[in-house]
Each structure stands twice: as C-alpha cells, then as structure tokens.
Specification:
With 107 residues, the protein is of the alpha/beta class. Helices cover 10% and strands 18% of the residues. Strand 5, helix 1 and strand 6 form a beta-alpha-beta unit.
C-alpha cells in the first residue's frame, strides 16, 4: 500500500492502526475517526499528508483517551516538522514509548 485515498478509513471505528513502511500519501480525512487511539506509522519518511486531521470526542480531555502517533525513533523530528504532521507534533512519539512510558502506570 502506497496511498490512502480521501476518507479511506474515516469512521472505521478502529482503536489501533499500523500504517506500512511503504505508505507515501494520506488523503484528506483518511484517518478521521473518533475511535482511533493509537496510530503507528512505520515509514521512515513521513507520508505526504497535507490535510492530516483527527477527530476527538470533546468530553475526553484526559490525554490517555486521545490519539497517540508512534513513528520510527530515527524519524521523530522529521514527522514533527513535516507538512500535515507538524500540526500533530504534540501527539507524536517514538515507537517503543508506550502509553505507560508516557503517562506512568495506572493502578
């Protein structure tokens, strides 16, 4: 898979999604889904995604319930600065930094 078309997975009700290393382009609204909490992007070069946006349920102000994006550690800064992705920089973390690592353990 090299491309996700516009709204390809919008509303798919996926809690977790892994994007393959071969992905080069993400169309507008392709990942717009309130259910998505964990997105892993395996591509070392950030896929072109100029209109990358994600829905969130406003009632969930706790960051544990918001989407987190995991990318190859060596590509972390590239993702945080890439068009489309840079607007999501606060949710981008290196692969291997799980939720427990980010927020501590829950009882």
């Amino acid at each position: 898979v090299t491309s996700l078309g516009p709204y390809a997975l919008a509303g798919a009700r996926l809690a977790e999604l892994t994007l393959p290393e071969s992905l080069e382009h993400i169309g507008a609204g392709a990942l717009d889904d309130w259910w998505l909490h964990t997105l892993t992007a395996k591509a070392k070069r950030p896929p072109d995604a100029p209109d990358l946006k994600f829905s969130e349920i406003p009632a969930y102000s706790n960051p544990l319930y918001n989407l987190h994006i995991f990318v190859p550690p060596e590509s972390l800064e590239a993702y945080k600065q890439a068009p489309g992705w840079r607007g999501q920089a606060w949710r981008i973390f290196p692969i291997g930094a799980g939720r427990g690592t980010l927020f501590g353990s829950l009882p």
